[in-house]
Amino acid sequence: MRQIILDTETTGLDFRLGDRIIEVGCVELLNRKLTGQRFHRYINPEREVEAGALAVHGLSNDFLQDKPRFAEIVAAFLDFVQGAELVIHNAAFDIGFLNNELALLDKSPLEQTCPGVVDTLKMARDLHPGRRNSLDALCERYAINNSGRTLHGALLDAELLAEVYLAMTRGQESLIMELDAAPVPGLQAELAAERPPLRVLRASAAELVEHERVLAEIGEESRDNCIWWGLKA
Description:
The protein is of the alpha/beta class and 233 residues long. The chain is 47% helix and 16% strand.
């Protein structure tokens, strides 16, 4: 199973107001193991970065000025994520921005390139209802070192999210391993041979009479609407 852990940074919070992507970071998981394959690009958004967003990620207009535009990196990005399941924290935000960038280039939505999306924010809320489930909070909860995260960064956040995702789904990994385990030849026969004969205890005549009496009382209380009378017949 190939999965891509993905994160973006943007000029602001709403692509519908003209905000654009300025950074994309991805890391690859193959059968739940980090492969070391990464995709990382800074992008010239062709607009100003909002002050609030700058305080979060620190990517200034001057820094982004000489970076490629999304149209110049889109082919490499789509090639990297092709056919993979995406794992994203607050997926609606990143997918919305990415699909907006693709629409501006008359390209199909990302869902046509990737077969599915796992939202780790929703997963965390299901696992830890009523608790903080930001990436920093999850790193603390799962003892993942995020001391280098003084500012948000798409690649760093994708790498941290990969560790968080693996920690949150570790029980699933054990289940998959059990389901995939090949049967041991002769094991079932050995277990059956070691098992002692099953002892059957039959009700005595007196116990059967008492049982019928109790059933009759229950039937009378229910005005003969008991299902088992029909089954006995």
